[in-house]
UniProtKB/TrEMBL annotation:
Keyword Nucleus: yes
Keywords: Nucleus
Cellular component GO terms held in the UniProt record: nucleus
Organism expressing this protein natively: Schizosaccharomyces cryophilus (strain OY26 / ATCC MYA-4695 / CBS 11777 / NBRC 106824 / NRRL Y48691)
Family indicated by similarity: Belongs to the dpy-30 family.
Region Disordered: start-end pairs: 46-106
InterPro entries, per database record: Dpy-30_motif (IPR007858), DPY30_SDC1_DD (IPR049629)
Main subcellular localisation: nucleus
Protein name: Dpy-30 domain-containing protein Sdc1
Length: 106
């Protein structure tokens, strides 16, 4: 047994890394509405984590143009909002770095 309280271990594994990344983003970007930005960051990180657990949807081959149009719209939205782009980049970074290592086993 590791000697760490179960609740602390749970928080250290599931919350602290994401929260620290969000706080780093706040310190770096200093938004006018830090709690709102942090809240959105945490929601995005949670959604990314859920998506990692589910298989990604596949687009039918008859709809590649629709997929391309959707990606263009997303790109335009994030390009025009640097704060949103920063949040998305940071949450993607977290989801990539906090993914469990499959080589360690269950």
């Amino acid at each position: 047994m590791s000697g760490v309280a179960p609740s602390r271990e749970y928080l250290n594994e599931n919350v602290t890394p994401v929260l620290l990344e969000g706080m780093k983003m706040l310190a770096r970007d200093r938004p006018e509405n830090p709690l709102q930005v942090l809240g959105q960051f945490l929601l995005n990180a949670s959604q990314n984590r859920q998506q990692q657990k589910q298989p990604e949807p596949t687009f039918p081959e008859s709809q590649p143009q629709l997929q391309s149009q959707n990606m263009d719209q997303i790109s335009q939205t994030t390009d025009s909002n640097p704060q949103l782009r920063s949040m998305i980049d940071a949450s993607q970074h977290i989801s990539q770095t906090s993914a469990p290592d499959a080589s360690n086993g269950p």
